[in-house]
Amino acid sequence: MWTRLKRLYHKMGSPKWFYQISTLCSKWCMAVGSVLMLTGVVWGLAFAPADYLQGNSFRIIYVHVPASLLSQSAYIMMAVAGLVGLVWKMKMSFVVAKVIAPIGASLAILSLLTGAIWGKPTWGTWWVWDARLTSMLILLFLYFGVIAIYNAIENDEMANKAAALLAIVGSINIPVIKYSVEWWNTLHQPATITLSKKPTMAPEMFIPLVLTIFGFYCWFAVWVFARARNEVLLKERRTKWVRALVQARQHKSQIGGDA
Amino acid sequence: MSRQNFHNLDASPNANGQLPMLSARGLLCERDERVLFCQLDFDLFAGDIVRIAGPNGAGKSSLMRILLGLSAGFEGQLFWHGQPMAEQIHDFRSQLLYLGHQLGVKGSLSAEENLAWFCPNARPDEIYAALQKVGLKGYEDLLTHALSAGQQRRVALARLFLADKPLWILDEPFTAIDKEGVSELEQVVIKHAQGGGLVILTTHHDLRVPVKTLMLGGQESEMPLC
Amino acid sequence: MFFDDLSSFLAMGGHGQYVWLSYGLAALIVAINFIGPALTRKKIIKDIERQLRREQT
Amino acid sequence: MLIALLKRDLLLAFRSRGDLLNPLMFFMVVASLFPLAVSPDPALLGSIAAGVIWVGALLAALLSLDLMFKGDYEDGSLEQMLLMPQPAMLMVLVKVLVHWLVAGLPLAFIAPLLGLMLGLADGGFMPLILSLLLATPTLSLLGAIGAGLTVGLRKGGMLMPLLILPLYIPVLIFAASAVQAGVQGTSYLGHMAFLGAYLALTLVVAPLAAAAALRISLAR
Questions:
Q1: Alpha helix locations (H) across chain D?
Q2: Could you tell me which chains touch chain D, where touching means 3 or more CB pairs under 8 A?
Q3: Is residue A146 within 8 Å of residue A170, measured between CB atoms?
Q4: What's the pLDDT tens digit per position in A172-205?
């Protein structure tokens, strides 16, 4: 049992194995995610009933909520990947942490933008210092910090470790930040105009949301795999297997050109 | 994979029947995707004076930082008194005196104050005696940025007389020291080794001291006794 | 289908601009995340190919 | 050993008294920019005084963080400290203590003066001083992580606010609203309890993280 685990661990640390397995995984994630997204979005946009308070603008929920959820859990994933890298010295783990940062930041931006757009018809203004928007903004700042540290440190190994440490410290702080922002918001909000949904969403509104959330997660995996594979190729560009891979591609494309 | 598997050290004792103080097995160091050295094995015994030599860029300071435990980018194992270094790190550090390329001497403190924090257990009269030995008598109360480069280095060198640590790791200790000072320092190093200490150093000076050389930068590393 | 016809679907009961703007932005960011790595990958492979050719000659 | 380090750092701080005044002067200048930028109207100033003073304190503390490890890094003493048998986190704690004594604590003493200048209501002074006393150590502790991560970097000064300011937000929220609560005459005990709890959390996490950060920064 222990030796098998150990072998799996070594395999997971091997870039070649990661490259091969991630190619396969990402195909599956792409297929499943696309089906989920397509059904979820079409259902949410065209078939779900309008909200009795917000009308049709509530349909933004099907992109806003998945983006928010995902960008938050992506930060935790980044911190966990960094922790694994720091403690068990697993190089692939650092690669995963590194590629999550820009994706998570892009999702946080999407969440902020869609939140602002949703706010316009709901609150009558583009931006309010609502607890959720504010803590998402701070999360975006946390992502900026991690990205900045990758950019600032030239030595790869040092940058990976420093960013992992920062991500871990940040993720410890996330609950504190969230709590304080929520508390601050309830203190300062003069009139409570929150986006409180009805306690129970109608299933025909709720199911497409679940579909898009899972769809986003699948696509997120595809993005992580794609970027991580790029990192692997770049890092291993002098090894035999990468060269063989590139040559095989070259060969295939030449044959394809002849035919 | 840079995961360390801890083996037990299989080293043979030297002629005096001692076990090695500091050993390395299969050290590999990479910098910017260039292998500086690999499969580096050595056993260093109490009483040795070891000079790490090699051309520029051969990894002399990298090796030193690895030995000190300040560098993480290496593979292989280090052993302190036959035990894996990771388990002995406290013992190793409490027996280590390191003089770096940068001295750690604060310009806005006097020579005496600088030494007082390096060696907190030393009494003031011991500090004065050590400063006298490195030829800084009368400079004890002067702020060190008023001293010359050589004198500042002597302040750092005074630590050799104060702390009773068996392992000395000295990075270019003779820089900016005059001829007389160099030969005095050589005597100090010899005396320390004879007293059962281990000295590891890098230098561009030709030492008039019996040293072992740890050659880096060749295809294989060799350790002839000069 | 919740909507009666295409025009009411596009209008979204007056909230069309907000909904479609949100979905447009989402599509944009999704597209960036898909296309960005693909372009990088192409560039990396081209670089490796060039390196290989340089070594062959 | 740690006491020797503490003595040395305090002596060093005392020898460069000029540097000590910089954060304080910065604090005063920033706070006096607000009446010029917003309005000299005492009622308006009084209502934003708590926030202005706390933002100023945050920035002043941030400004001085860069120096926490920089000097020791440049002359090699930091290497020596990491090679000592004592755990590096204790060394970090000493450094944080010194930073707080020379850069955080003075802010608490000068803040009432700024409160007067900005027309802070009488009830706000006590919570202002208390919150500064209780929360500036947190600023130094969290800052040590950022200072440790950026110590070897040339562009470190610009990077640090980006890394550390988001972590300062809970402090800012609770400290500023404690002052606000004092102005309104309500109890600010809960705010202080939160600040104390956050201090306890950072006291556990930050020295560990900062020591790890220093090891990363020095492993070139």
A1: 2-15, 17-37, 42-65, 67-75, 77-82, 88-99, 105-117, 125-150, 156-184, 189-218
A2: A, B
A3: yes
A4: 999 998 888 888 887 766 544 455 555 567 788 8
For residues B7 and B88, membership in a common domain is answered with: yes
**Mean pLDDT score of chain B:** 81
| CB proximity list for B191: less than 8 A, separation 6 or greater | none
> What is the pLDDT averaged over residues B119-142?
84
| Residue B170 shares a structural domain with residue B160 | no
- Residue of chain A nearest B30, judged by CA positions: A157
Write down the H helix ranges in D118-188: 125-150, 156-184
For residue B34, what is the domain's CATH number?
3.40.50.300
CA–CA separation, D21 and D19 (whole Å): 5
Do residues B78 and B22 share a domain?
Answer: yes
Q: For residues B13 and A251, what is the distance between their CA atoms, to the nearest angstrom?
A: 58
pLDDT 10s digits, C21-46? 999 999 999 999 999 999 999 999 99
Indicate the pTM of the whole model.
0.86
Reported residue count of chain C is 57
Strand order in the sheet with B49-53: B96-99, B167-171, B198-202, B49-53, B212-215
The pLDDT value recorded for residue A229 is 92
Beta strands B83-84; B34-44: pairing state: unpaired
- Looking at B133, B149, B164, the residue that finishes a domain is B164
Determine whether the interchain pair B116/D4 forms a contact, defined as Cβ–Cβ distance below 8 Å. yes
Question: Could you tell me the pLDDT band of residue B8, with boundaries at 50, 70 and 90?
Answer: low
* More confident: A176 or B16: A176
pLDDT of residue A200: 61
Q: pLDDT confidence of B11, banded at 50, 70, 90?
A: low
CA distance D11 to chain A (A): 31
Q: Residue B4 has what pLDDT?
A: 42
Alpha carbon A37 to its chain centroid, in Å, reads: 15
- Structurally, chain A folds into a number of domains equal to 1
Domain of residue A232, residue span: 24-188+200-258
C10 touches chain A (CB under 8 A): no
- Structural domain for B121, as ranges: 104-164
In a domain, B226, yes or no: no
Cα B192 off chain centre by? 12
Higher pLDDT, A205 or D204: D204
> How many independent structural domains does chain B possess?
2
Tokens of A29: 């994630």
Residues of chain B positioned with their CB less than 8 A from the CB of A10: 1
Q: Between A103, A121, A246, which is nearest C45 by CB?
A: A246
Question: What pLDDT score does A193 carry?
Answer: 46
Residue A170's pLDDT is 94
Residues B62, B172 within the same domain: yes
Question: Which range, of B28-42, B168-182, D29-43, averages the lowest pLDDT?
Answer: B28-42
Q: How far is CA C2 from CA A45, A55, A212, in A?
A: 9, 12, 19
The burial of A6, by beta-carbon neighbours within 10 Å (0-12 exposed, 13-18 middle, 19 or more buried), is given as exposed
pLDDT confidence of residue B12: 67
- 3 state SS for chain B: CCCCCCCCCCCCCCCCCCCCCEEEEEEEEEECCEEEEEEEEEEECCCCEEEEECCCCCCHHHHHHHHHCCCCCEEEEEEECCEEHHHCHHHHHHCEEEECCCCCCCCCCEHHHHHHHHCCCCCHHHHHHHHHHCCCCCCCCCEHHHCCHHHHHHHHHCHHHHCCCCEEEEECCCCCCCHHHHHHHHHHHHHHHHCCCEEEEECCCCCCCCCEEEECCCCCCCCCEC
To the nearest whole angstrom, how far is the Cα of C57 from the nearest Cα of chain A?
Answer: 15
With respect to residue A169, please indicate whether it lies within any of the assigned structural domains: yes
Interface probe for D, chosen from A135, A160, A176, A181 (most Cβ of D below 10 Å), is: A176
